[in-house]
Amino acid sequence: MEPETAAIPATRFGSSEVAPPRATQDRIEIPDFEPNPAPSGDIGPERFLDREVSWLDFNGRVLDLAEDPDLYLLERVNFLSIFASNLDEFFMVRVAGLKRRIAAGLAVPSPAGLSPVEQLESIGEEAHELARRHARVFEEQIRPALEDESIYLTSWNELDESSKTELRTLFMEKVFPILTPLAVDPAHPFPYISGLSLNLAVVVRNPISGKELFARLKVPAQLPRLISVDGPRAGRVAGRKARFIPLEDVIAEHLDQLFPGMEVREHHTFRVTRNEDLEVEEDDAENLLQALEKELLRRRFGPPVRLEVAHDINPSIRSLLIRELGVDEDEVYEAPAPLDLRGLDVIGKIERTDLRYPRRVAHTSRFLNESETSNAANVFAAMRRRDILLHHPYDSFSTSVQAFLEQAAGDPKVQAIKQTLYRTSGDSPIVDALVDAAEAGKQVLALVEIKARFDEQANITWARKLEQAGVHVVYGIVGLKTHCKLSLVVRQEMEGLRRYCHVGTGNYHPSTARHYEDLGLLTTNQEVGEDLSRLFNQLSGYAPRATFKRLLVAPRSVRSGLIDRIEKEISNKKAGLPARVQIKVNNMVDEAIIDALYRASQAGVSVDIVVRGICSLRPGLAGLSENIRVRSILGRFLEHSRIFAFANGGDQVVYIGSADMMHRNLDRRVEALVQLNSAEDIASMVDLLNLYMDEKTSSWHLAADGSWDRHHVDADGNPLRDVQSWLLASRARQRSAAHP
């Protein structure tokens, strides 16, 4: 395939004259994919679990944590909020995608054999049940437990007069000025309802004509959803009352101020979810940034995919909303007020140490700062001594990856820095380091993925900040998202130029690095350095046929490389050599990978899979997958790392990297897996995977019928090992041993 080329305007980085940024008009040359044979036996699409149902099952596991009375109460509150946010995204993307396919007449069945209509029906039933369960958990478990701790989600009528007076003042000063009531009558058409906004449907009566009228009032998203009645420090002291009232309740109590001269007869809360997935035709986009900004504006007007209403809504108002919004009856979700329990995160942040996970401090990796006598580790010196495998958040991100880039920016011997950025924070020290490096005259390349879902606008903002500082900003390859996590620093040393590399599984995001479990490799290995140079050249220039020694790179070689490894395990098993496959990913969906794992199981190879989210593989089916075990672990940290380990006849091979086993990762993204070199690092990853799969570790087990069974206590009712707490304690023991 010949690379597509187009005239690219000249760009003078570092000056005021900057050409419009655009994606590289060069595709990675992808070899024709030869489908691998299906597993033996008379089996068809039923060998796969439906991915949409599997995703809902994942969110059900999040809800399991909210229901767990053995967890800290405020952490349970947070899991309720996370569940609500997850379900929003599911409707905005997955349900919206199915509806789009149905509308377009695309009836192609899923790998599990379901048509889009059948998928929509199956997930609709489960989504309704999950939503009902979510509401029950809050009303029957969490709310009473909070009240036992003197934390209340209260109503206006339960407040004393002093509190009401304070809230009236707050309403008039901070809420009333930004409210906009919108009438609906022959002169005023039904207003546009933005996605995920909380709204009040208000019925008022004209006392002169006696006519009832409808109005819509949007609850301002820029204000706190839950208002602390007892001040900002409420809830910090055990036994002291902390009351919170929903903002919509305060607004509802003052509707007479918004409709003077009218009688307010009733009001009801409702919420709309819209299709918010992006569709940008990059081949036709002369300026990707501008095209994306237009699409972000269009996203606000996507068609509705869900209507949430309070369960006590007037049937006539319910019918009006269904008619005006154009939703079907089965797209209406009823729940007790308050709607949108994402707002519970305000309560979840209360600083009650007795109601949340114990505080922890992430420490510098022992390989970066073995003595810990200096203020900051010399990352470059440590990397010259050995490869350093980081495990976040157990190893500090700020004193490792962040320090690596900050030291590179300030080091006069550093000549160039090349960096991929998929998601990062708005005030990111990573972005600041790249800006500092460019302003110091270093060659700095930032490969920014501005199409990172739901972070597009933020990425556009700091991409422009980088450009203005003189950083060479490129936006990857047309048709592919750049999802790999790579840093390359080139430093002038006495013996010549040396490459310092970081290959990770997680984003360069200091905030999420404190809550996401991820891995990263710091290395000066020459082959890895050469591979990263080739890959960055491919991403920023024209190098569609680049080949790699230590990396597997999607979309060319991740799927095929992993399948080759699986096939080698099959050959080793037949030859009587050690054979085993261990995989840890966020999602296991790709049919070719799953079929390869089925073939391995049929050959007698032991296959262990740790998956956080979706799994379309059915384990434990006789004659197909009886040698496959699937586990899922959720907890304090979001399990985000990807690990691929192969027994390889006794000479273990382990890869880590950014790729999940999904079509989008393997076919439509640039992903990178790096092969570990250190025997110690390889052994540590195998030990970690064994720990995740151990029967004494708390986890969910996937059955052949697609059901998940939680195993968190033993036969005697004693709690099983929480792997994340165990790893935290293990790091503390290591530090104590190193610094008695």
Explain briefly what this protein structure is.
By secondary structure, the chain is α/β, with parallel strands linked by helices. Helices cover 34% and strands 20% of the residues. Strands 14, 18, 19, 20, 21, 23, 24, 25, 26 and 27 form a ten-stranded mixed beta sheet that branches.
Q: How would you describe what is shown here?
A:
The protein is an alpha/beta fold. The protein folds into three domains: 123-355, polyphosphate kinase like (2-Layer Sandwich), CATH 3.30.1840.10; 379-547, Endonuclease, Chain A, CATH 3.30.870; 553-738, 2-Layer Sandwich (Endonuclease, Chain A), CATH 3.30.870. The chain is built from 19 helices and 27 strands. Strands 14, 18, 19, 20, 21, 23, 24, 25, 26 and 27 form a ten-stranded mixed β-sheet that branches. α16 links the parallel β19 and β20. α11 (401-410) runs parallel beside α12. Mean pLDDT is 87; it is low at 1-26, 278-289 and 295-299.
What is the rounded distance between the termini? 61 Å
> What's the number of structural domains?
3
So what's the overall shape?
A: globular
**CATH homologous superfamily of the largest domain - what is it?**
Polyphosphate kinase middle domain
Largest sheet: 10 strands, mixed
At CATH level 2, the architecture of the largest domain is: 2-Layer Sandwich
CATH class of the largest domain: Alpha Beta
Quantity of strands, as a count: 27
CATH topology of the largest domain: polyphosphate kinase like
**Mean pLDDT across residues:** 87
- C-alpha Rg (nearest Å): 28 Å
What is the helical fraction, as a range of percent? Answer: 25-40%
Low-confidence stretches: 1-26, 278-289, 295-299
Strand content: 15-25%
Number of helices: 19
Q: What structural class should be given to the helix and strand makeup?
A: alpha/beta
